[in-house]
Amino acid sequence: MDIQKNIDEIKSQLPAETRLVAVSKFHGVDEILKAYDGGHKIFGESRVQELIEKQPHLPEDIEWHFIGRLQRNKVRFITPFISCIHSVDSERLLRQIERQAARVDRVIPCLLQMHIAEEDTKTGFSEEECWKLLESNKWREYKHIQLSGVMGMATFTDDEAVVRKEFAKLQAFFNKVKEHFFADGPHFKEVSMGMSSDYKIAVEEGSTIIRVGSNIFGERE
Ligand SMILES: *Cc1c(COP(=O)(O)O)cnc(C)c1O
User: Fold this and answer.
1) Distance between CA atoms of 73 and 64, rounded to whole angstroms?
2) H-run or E-run covering 55
3) Coil, strand, or helix at residue 19?
4) Is the pLDDT of residue 147 over 90?
5) How far apart, in whole angstroms, are the C-alpha atoms of residue 194 and residue 8?
6) Which of 197, 211, 212 has the most ligand 1 atoms within 8 A of CB, as the residue to mutate?
7) What tens digit of pLDDT does each residue of 95-144 get?
8) CA angle, 12 then 16 then 20, to 5°
9) All domains of the chain, ordered by start, with CATH?
């Protein structure tokens, strides 16, 4: 795998406003450094244990994004350094991030993970649940969280039309939420969608952050 070449190729296809999170889960420090040495600084991990093992061995100016399911009792391990949490799927998790971010005096950008796929296995809020959370207005008291947008994973299928429909639905929901709750909130601007198999469709549907792993680092073992 020519990691740098893979990253350059993906980046060359992205609009200026769309960022790439290189998903380095299951890959070692050496492989991450190859990407870093080529100039890439944004990496994504989906397990707390794996992330906190690798992070101390890597340059401090890496922007780490947490993209996997996050247990509340593990939040405190990542709040000292994490740049963005893509996978907020409950009010309780949000509250825990607030509490732990306050302890280290940081403000952490967080995305609300939406369940957009047909598969039940994928996690996230339904639109109704998410709307309810936002209407409760509790999040407005959370001074150490910056709600920055939404995240979603499409159904794993070859049927492009299904994937496109799910991404379009996420984009539409984002627009609705932005207009209703964040009209004065310039930070609410991210739509995190698109992985190796579907990032091209996601970009066409307005993704601002794509999360790509295997197309950069190769298949995971
Ligand atoms: C693993 C993972 C990715 C990257 O998947 P690839 O298919 O390897 O690009 C993206 N998003 C999430 C949430 C992941 O867990």
Assistant:
1) 19
2) none
3) strand
4) yes
5) 17
6) 211
7) 999 999 999 999 999 999 999 998 777 789 999 999 999 999 999 999 99
8) 65
9) 3-217 (3.20.20.10)
